[in-house]
Design goal:
This protein has about 280 residues and is α/β, with parallel strands linked by helices. The chain has two domains: about 250 residues, 2-enoyl-CoA Hydratase, Chain A, domain 1 (Alpha-Beta Complex); about 35 residues, no CATH class. Helices cover about 40% and strands about 15% of the residues. The protein contains eleven helices and seven strands. Strands 1-2-3-4-5-6-7 form a seven-stranded mixed beta sheet, with helices on both faces. Helix 3 runs parallel beside helix 4 and helix 4 packs parallel to helix 5. The radius of gyration is 19 Å and the shape is globular. The chain starts with a helix and ends with a helix. The relative contact order is 0.11.
């Protein structure tokens, strides 16, 4: 085994709290509404589901490269990282406070670590409302500087939160990450296993994995599972500032690509890459 692999500090193997701490400057981590605040979902116990004290979201204030920042990390090990009323409100509220900081001259940046299957089915409409608030807050915060998203694995990023990831100024993924609007099991359920076999892992990653998403321009960097490298990229993007054109503002571009898709057959990963590369050069 390569010495680099032996000594690499895995980001994927960290829980949400450790991921947030690793992105912030040493000694600057301060958690808001932590587990001791006991802010839990009021809806899960009614359905016989054990709650988690932070409802699966860590909100951490601190600095990144000396600059005020908030890191929002979703815990994929709790309910698949799904968003409910409390967890969604924690993210939306933190982003809204970052907007208020910027309006008052405090240049607070935001990093969101996505590890989520989307809306929590047990809190459906409440989760949807919270995700809409997250989208609005990301849009507002982008006016002051870059909002950075990270999708590392193992859960990936799906559902309404994949839209939030797409709204980020920069999106970092690993090879192990997956990004898509609908999860493989949902597509298989609705379209059939012949259309999308959720058990075919090479097939799934070839279409929604980190490398493919960068190759098609839907993410900005695909890095190895290394905490130092991921943090260094976040610092570099914060230093670079917001991109000239936000990906989510290229509506006509992506509509044109979708209209060019041949729906009479299932496109291969190579077909998808060719379509997006041609579209960018058009």
């Amino acid at each position: 085994m390569s010495p680099d692999l032996i000594h690499r500090d895995s980001f994927i193997e960290r829980d949400a709290r450790a991921r947030a701490a690793a992105l912030l400057d040493p000694g600057s981590f301060r958690e808001l509404l932590d587990s001791f605040a006991r802010v839990t979902s009021p809806w899960l116990p009614r359905q016989g589901i054990v709650t988690q004290a932070d409802d699966g979201v860590v909100v951490a204030k601190g600095t990144i490269d000396g600059q005020p920042a908030v890191v929002l990390a979703i815990e994929g090990a709790f309910q698949g990282g799904s968003m409910g009323e409390v967890s969604g409100a924690k993210i939306a509220g933190a982003l809204e406070l970052a907007v208020a900081d910027n309006e008052q001259g405090i240049p607070t940046r935001a990093v969101i670590v996505f590890e989520t299957g989307g809306v929590r089915l047990q809190e459906a409409n409440l989760g949807l409302a919270a995700i809409a608030e997250i989208h609005a807050a990301i849009h507002a915060l982008r006016a002051f500087g870059p909002v950075i998203g990270i999708t590392a694995g193992v859960v990936g990023c799906f559902g309404g939160m994949s839209i939030a990831a797409g709204m980020c100024s920069y999106l970092l993924v690993t090879r192990e990450a997956r990004l898509g609007l609908n999860g493989p099991a949902v597509i298989e359920q609705e379209a059939g296993v012949e259309e999308y076999d959720s058990r075919d892992r090479p097939f799934i990653w070839s279409l929604t994995g980190g490398e493919q998403r960068v190759a098609t321009g839907l993410a900005d960097a695909c890095l190895a599972d290394d905490t130092d490298a991921i943090r260094a990229q976040v610092v570099a993007w914060l230093s670079a500032g917001a991109p000239e054109h936000q990906r989510s503002e290229r509506i006509a571009h992506y509509l044109a690509l979708l209209s060019a898709v041949d729906t009479t057959h299932q496109p291969s990963p190579a077909d998808v890459r060719a379509l997006y590369v041609h579209g960018d050069n058009a």
